[in-house]
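The instructor's notes for this session suggest beginning with a concrete chain rather than abstract definitions. Hand out the sequence below and ask the class to guess, before any prediction is shown, which regions might be ordered.
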Amino acid sequence: MSHDIFLSHASEDKETFVEKLYKKLTEAKYKIWYDKQELYWGDNLKVKIREGLKASDYGIVVISNNYFAKHKEWTFMEFNQILENEKMLAILHGIDMQTFRNRYPKEHEQIKNWMAISSDEGIDNIVRHAKIKIDKLKSEKDIDYTRLRDLLAAKKWKEADQETYRVMIKAVGKEDGDYFDEDEFLNFPCTELRIINGLWVKYSNGRFGFSVQKEIYLSVGGKADGKYYQKAWEKFGDRVGWRVASSWISCSEVTFDTSAPRGHLPVWGLESEMGSYPSILTNWEKVGLAINAVLRPSFWKVLYVIYIGLKEDSLRNRWREIETKKLFKRGCSLLSHQDL
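After discussion, reveal the predicted structure:
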């Protein structure tokens, strides 16, 4: 089971603060990993805590005079794991930052660059701040963005691009393997688009993302009106590396690392569509098997093969031309979205 928040604290602080915080966070509809509700007789504590940490999007750490006491094996383990996963939301309870630094210099050094909040600000205010932070990954379509976030954080760009398609197709109510249409991109759910784009921009340090692509598209003459402007789209393709020497690259030529031009990713799952045009050759070959039995003389066989080849190339190129234009129109629709 996944959780929004892992609540890390010293047991001595339960009565004075943590119980009240847990209640307020639960009332705010967050899924909380709280030891009192998760640990039972016979459980392996270390295993259960690690599972809880792994399954939680964020860790609230209630730092107090009790939290870093020498006998607190569990709080040290939780603290280090939350810190390692960069999921920390720190609360100073009954201690200020100066005192914390004096008493626990090593731990202070580890979190000195993290913004902390004091319990003196009140639990309601802390929950409000938590909403601002945590709701950035809150989907209105019941989509779990944890895997996309983790793939981007690990710089696994290709897998993240594939996951981007998966969450986007789900956001418009379709299944894996389906394609988008222009209206679905132009009217893509705002909250979902902001989450997906925000994750790409954050973990690429501003190099990749829809908003980055839109900025480039507009800078080369594109317009955010959902229409397809061929010249602007070609210039955009040149800038982001989707077009090389006046030719559009194939899906196998997409660069999935930070050496790619700015705006090169994500490809929004469109790379799967680039290589998905139906093959007419299969049907022609079936017809050819029947004709081949009749056309015995080799001369006629050669003419037949040449004819089929030319016909196939012509049909394939025409099909590709039509589908590519549709593909580009969908791209223009997405980059015209008002929430980018």
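Then share the key points. The chain has two domains: 3-137, 139-340. The chain has 16 helices and seven strands.
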